[in-house]
UniProtKB/TrEMBL annotation:
The gene is aroE. This is Shikimate dehydrogenase (NADP(+)). Belongs to the shikimate dehydrogenase family. The lineage of its organism: Bacteria, Pseudomonadati, Pseudomonadota, Alphaproteobacteria, Hyphomicrobiales. It comes from Ferirhizobium litorale. One of its GO terms (biological process) is shikimate metabolic process. Homodimer. Shikimate binds at S22, R23, S24, T71, N96, D111, Y227, Q255. The active site is at K75. Pfam families: SDH_C, Shikimate_DH, Shikimate_dh_N. NADP(+) binds at E87, G136, A137, G138, G139, A140, N160, R161, T162, V163, E164, R165, I225, G248. SUPFAM superfamilies: Aminoacid dehydrogenase-like, N-terminal domain, NAD(P)-binding Rossmann-fold domains. Transmembrane segments: none annotated. The keyword Oxidoreductase applies.
Length: 282
């Protein structure tokens, strides 16, 4: 292996548009340091029109990257341009992790893995066979539904302002996933053991609507995929009403681990040192 190949195996990226707020370079930089790996992980802001050319340079080796993460708005295009997306990416129609293998571009989606691993780590007793309520029906919601379904959850109720989008997800993810309009939220929460917010409600200084969680079963877990702030308005409300809450930061940290292993060959751990590093940067 010559020097340029050596470099090729150790450079990874995150690309989005915009990408400057991404915490991924901090996460992967921490792991590179932990393992003393001579590699790099950098942010590349790429406009949608330029994204196919970027993927082309990745495939032909001229970019010298061995893979990377893609975030909004490139996840769907990344899936379409990959040579071999795996089943997870295929079902979601979106990829967030790319890597080269024998000249081919492989792709997966680790968002769902990040979601369940965060629950496993912070609330080990969460019950995958329970009834779950997922608020929202966007891209993040898909990954959450897929992951929870794959862990064997009993029933999943998807509640969305635009009920048609929830119906699309119910059709896509099979018989145990049900769609509801937002007005049905209270009713579908009855006896549910898991509530997941996948919307941006309460961000950007807006007030989130008041949610009455009292119909959830006692001991239910309420979680949010938003992690800025860590304690979202929805989580605060749930905690005040006596429920266990899990913030969304761990989802970001756990979704990063499989990519690091693909590019750099070591499986990193998500621990409090990393979590505190990211919190200090927020
Ligand atoms: P992402 O891919 O990050 O999940 P998205 O596709 O824009 O983002 O989805 C955002 C989700 O938040 C959607 O479920 C959206 O509801 P609609 O499908 O009805 O648009 C939901 N959402 C955003 N703002 C909302 C609001 N003010 N009230 C209710 N739901 C909202």
């Amino acid at each position: 292996m010559d020097d340029s190949r050596e470099t090729l195996t150790k450079r990874a990226f995150v690309t989005g548009y915009p990408v400057r707020h991404s915490r991924s370079p901090l996460i992967h930089g921490h792991w590179l340091k932990t393992f003393s790996i001579d590699g790099s992980y950098v942010a590349r802001e790429i406009a949608p029109d330029d994204f196919p050319a970027f993927i082309g340079s990745l495939k032909d080796g001229s970019s010298l990257f061995c893979g990377g993460n893609v975030t909004i708005p490139h996840k769907e295009t990344a899936f379409q341009l990959a040579d071999r997306p795996d089943e997870l990416a295929e079902e979601l129609g979106a990829a967030n992790t790319l890597w080269l293998e024998e000249g081919q571009l492989l792709a997966t989606n680790t968002d769902g893995h990040g979601f369940v691993s965060n629950l496993d780590a912070r609330q080990p007793g969460w019950d995958a066979s329970d009834v779950a309520v997922v608020l929202g029906a966007g891209g993040a919601s898909r990954a959450v539904i897929q992951a929870v379904r794959d862990r064997g959850i009993g029933e999943i109720h998807v509640v969305n302002r635009t009920v048609e989008r929830a119906r699309e997800l119910a059709d896509r993810f099979g018989p145990r996933v049900h769609a509801h309009p937002i007005g049905a939220l209270r009713e579908v929460m009855t006896n549910a053991g898991l509530f997941v917010n996948t919307t941006s409600l309460g961000m950007d200084g807006d007030r989130a609507p008041e949610i009455d969680f009292s119909h959830l079963r006692s001991g239910a877990v309420v979680t949010d995929i938003v992690y800025v702030p860590l304690m979202t308005q929805i989580l605060s409300q749930a905690e005040e009403q006596g429920f266990v809450v899990v913030d969304g930061l761990g989802m970001l940290l756990h979704q990063a681990a499989p990519g690091f292993e693909k590019w750099f060959g070591r499986r990193p751990v998500v621990d409090d040192t990393l979590r505190n590093l990211i919190i200090a940067d927020m």
